[in-house]
Amino acid sequence: MASEGIPRGLKVITVFLEQQGVAFEVVEHDKTTTARAQARTTGISADYVVKTIALRDEAAFLLAAIPASQRLDLDKARRALAASSALRFATEDEMRSEFDLFDVGALAPLPAIVRTTEVVDERLLEPERILFSGGDHTHGILMNPRDLIEIVQPKVADICAS
Fold it and tell me: Is the overall model pTM greater than 0.90, yes or no?
């Protein structure tokens, strides 16, 4: 991958991870628009692919990271994040504006990059490696979930729908 052809979001993610001193691998894949599709195209179980969801709580944006095989339980996320009753899913326009470093629908679960708070579902700690979006629709980042937890210090809770 030539450096001039690296998408901006992917470059920021890889530089951040390198600065944190954690091992990771960039996975290039066919264009996908969902975490489930990313799982299919990479051959990685949807249980091990991260779906990063942007949430809005009044004026603040928050992130929730869950397995692509699951659905977010907004009430569980609200409790885990100590958010208000106004917590809701961010709109595409809000994501485009607030997280302009990343393609809409390709958020990485790296709250330090976007200066926000995050909750990670406890199921993502089970596999040896997880894959999450590399900031665009053709790249993923494969890494140890314990390294992710160590560098981003998110809240960890059961936030998936039963």
Answer: yes
What is the CATH number assigned to the segment(s) 3-157?
Answer: 3.90.960.10
Please, what is the Cα angle at 73 between 67 and 101, to 5 degrees?
Answer: 60
pLDDT in tens, 4-51: 678 999 999 999 999 999 999 999 999 999 999 999 999 999 999 999
Domain limits of the chain? 3-157
User: What does each C-alpha distance from 41 to 89, 124, 141 come to in angstroms?
Assistant: 26, 20, 14
Q: How distant, in Å, are the alpha carbons of 1, 60, 120 from that of 76?
A: 40, 18, 11
Q: Quote the distance between the C-alpha of residue 90 and its chain's center.
A: 14
Condensed to tens digits (0 to 9), the pLDDT of residues 63-98 reads: 999 999 999 999 999 999 999 999 999 999 999 999
